[in-house]
Amino acid sequence: MTDNTPDTEQRPALVVDFGAQYAQLIARRVREAGVYSEIVPHTATAAEIAAKNPVALLLSGGPSSVYEEGAPKLDPEVFELGVPTLGICYGFQYMAQTLGGEVANTGLREYGATDAYIPENGSSLLAGQPVAQNVWMSHGDQVARAPEGFEVLATTDATKVAAFANEERKLYGVQWHPEVKHSDHGQAILENFLHRSAGLAADWNSDNVIAEQIERIRAQVGDARVISALSGGVDSAVSTALVHKAIGDQLTAVFVDHGLLRKGEREQVERDYVASTGVRLITVDAADTFLGHLAGVTDPETKRKIIGREFIRAFEKVQRDLVDEAKASGEKVKFLVQGTLYPDVVESGGGAGTANIKSHHNVGGLPDDLDFALIEPLRTLFKDEVREIGRELGIPEAIVGRQPFPGPGLGIRIIGEVTRERLDVLREADAIAREELSAAGMDQAIWQCPVVLLADVRSVGVQGDGRTYGHPIVLRPVSSEDAMTADWTRLPYDVLAKISNRITNEVSEVNRVVLDVTSKPPATIEWE
Ligand code: XMP
Which residue numbers delimit the GMPS ATP-PPase domain (predicted)? Predict the structure, then answer.
């Protein structure tokens, strides 16, 4: 399960991870340019990198100084592979130093928006770029002298060498971060590198992925039976639909209703999802069991463990029933579909250089020791790519476009004991918040907006003519690229006002709505 190799025969552009969180962002931007990408740790040797047959290399930024003891290194032979290479920030400095240039700490730091000057030049990387442009910097050291054979392509007020190129060797570097949106022409520079410097076509897209995965799934499964745990979330919805497209009724989808779902979620799966995909679905009614085991429990980790354990029990029962049914026809269910995404693969692969910020969350928390071979058709993909594939497979927008929702559901959004009554309160408040956010066209602006019930807190209010002593609801709207880091979303006041008014009017147990204005880190997205 911790194999870090995605399932594809595509030749990748490889992003070498020097330990910042920029590697995933670079990998995504490369894919947005139509080139398939993968991430490798900086500890990979030149031979290991060559074995992946890469079409290009991009060296990421990182938090260290190149001359610091213990600074991340890369096998210098990598620069002799003849693969077009772009160094970014730390990667740029590492390339400069390794190839005989000079990196120094001049005391001139640059953080944030910076003006770069790009004089006329003939390079494939920056030719035709605006002479003055705003770029995003984050560095203390400077490349003081470019290595021999390299042309300096850009400067800033503080940095004499802000970009360079050696066209003959196809080696390039920029001090700034072209992968962040704050760099004005960042994506154009990455595209120049991929399409012009490296000569790559923009031919990687979701159609290829669907066709390739269907073939792969058929080859892996043959005529065997397969089950899939459907959580109602995007990842399991798309992986299930993809497998169904490949093998039809050999697949049975299993949906566990643990009583911790959002309003309308079960109907959406049972009715809309089944109607659009034609998948065979078994729903397990397990709310009583889950809530029984959660009674009296307030500790977040204990809740998570109970929910995970009960999920497995429910699932094992289905497995037994299906096996019994299958025995009659002499078959045995041995394959399980999981909606693992590429960020999960990278994060659980760990490896030097990759920051392990969150623990691996998989759909419903199925353990490794269930006796199944896994089918993970989304292992190479990022969330936005998964959504695109879901749309192409005809899954309703209400499911494909939905916010990420944790496997333990509303159970970890009630701070305090989880009871049926509290779930009803939270479910109503959550539905109102989602409805108003959609109505205000905010779905694209936010990554997700957990709605949290502070069930053990009460405050005084006045509703109608009477004094109330109700519970607060917390709104936690966040913006994020990948949920590893996040910022609180600056929602328009009138949208917040509408949500607050409606919740306090329509949900009688709630008399106060508060806004969480904390980024991640230091807070996580979910409260538990
Ligand atoms: P945190 O709270 O760690 O959440 O900042 C990061 C992202 O992961 C989601 N999340 C989960 N997803 N099972 C899941 O499938 C889980 O146990 C789980 N816990 C958190 C969370 O909603 C956010 O998108």
Answer: 204-402
In a domain, 259, yes or no: yes
Distance 191 CA to ligand 1 centre (A): 33
Active site residue 89: yes
What is the Å distance from ligand 1's center to 413 Cα? 11
Amino acid at 67: Y
Class of residue 431 by CB neighbours under 10 A (exposed 0-12, middle 13-18, buried 19+): middle
Both structure tokens of 420: 């049926």
Q: How far apart are CA 190 and CA 412, in angstroms?
A: 40
The answer to whether residues 22 and 177 touch, using CB atoms and an 8 Å cutoff, is yes
Residue 94, domain member (yes or no): yes
Annotation: binding site for ATP: 231-237
Choosing from 32, 38, 179, 526, which is the catalytic residue? 179
CATH code for position 325: 3.40.50.620
CA–centroid distance, residue 94 to ligand 1 (Å): 35
- CATH for 126: 3.40.50.880
Contact (CB, 8 A) for 8 and 375? no
Q: Are 253 and 339 in contact (CB under 8 A)?
A: no
Is 7 part of a structural domain of the chain? no
**Active-site position among 42, 177, 244, 471:** 177
- Atom 10 of ligand 1 has which residue's CA nearest to it? 406
Is there a catalytic annotation at residue 449?
no
In a domain, 521, yes or no: no
Closest residue (by CA) to atom 14 of ligand 1? 406
CATH number at residue 450: 3.30.300.10
Do residues 271 and 316 both lie within one domain? yes
Range(s) of the domain holding residue 478:
413-515
Going by C-alpha positions, the residue among 208, 206, 214 that lies closest to residue 245 is 214
Told to judge if 182 belongs to the known catalytic residues of this protein, a careful annotator would answer: no
Per-residue pLDDT of the chain (528 residues; tens, 9 = 90+): 334 556 667 899 999 999 877 898 999 999 999 999 999 999 999 999 999 999 999 999 988 889 888 899 999 999 999 999 999 999 999 999 999 999 998 788 888 889 999 999 989 999 889 999 999 998 889 999 999 999 999 999 999 999 999 999 999 999 999 999 889 999 999 999 999 999 999 999 888 889 999 999 999 999 999 999 898 889 999 999 999 999 999 999 999 999 999 999 999 999 999 999 999 999 999 999 999 999 999 999 999 999 988 988 888 888 888 866 655 666 668 899 989 888 878 776 543 333 333 333 444 445 556 677 889 999 989 888 999 999 999 999 989 998 999 989 999 999 999 999 999 999 999 999 999 999 999 998 999 999 999 999 999 999 888 999 999 999 999 999 878 789 999 999 999 999 999 999 999 999 999 999 999 989 999 999
Q: Are residues 278 and 159 in the same domain?
A: no
State the total domains in the chain.
3
